[in-house]
Design goal:
Blueprint lengths: L9 E4 L6 H13 L16 H5 L1 H9 L6 E8 L4 E9 L4 H6 L3 E4 L9 H15 L4 E7 L3 H9 L3 E8 L4 E9 L1
Antiparallel strand pairs: 1-2, 2-3, 3-4, 5-7, 6-7
Amino acid sequence: MESGDHHMTLKLVKPTAAYADQVMAFREAMLRNGDSLDGAAGLEDVDTFDAWVDFDRRQRAQFGENFVPSEVYLAIREEDDTLVGIMQYRLRLNPFLEKHGGHIGYSVPPVYRRNGYATEMLGLLLPICREHGQKEVLLTCDKKNIGSRKVIQNNGGVLKDEILEEGRGRITQRFVILL
């Protein structure tokens, strides 16, 4: 992609109240479309920004000993300060995430898909993972989610294996990106 492309202007920022309205609009758009909010740190489970942004406390209560600390980032389009995606970087994996979640989850609302945003978001997050001492990251996606697979592969992801989810008939692909 050329550096002059209109969509190559994202920055990752930690969630702040300045983006509260956009985060909640993001939530509504995703839920209205029937999308799962992957990498949005339980945004679907809350009704307010303030409840959502207290990630660690809320998720520690929800997951107990399976809690995994994480960092959440908003992908902001610099030219107009617009939220185009949310990402969660899990600092370690538990047995569930090892199979079905990986280190990184991300969501882009329907209106912003197919613009290269998710690919750019992941590309911006990988150096942060490296700064945390990661040598490689694991990412997963539903085998039917061609867009997510391309995002991972465009950032150097190599297919590790596929896991059939018992009872759901869904195949999860697991990819590794070496840092």
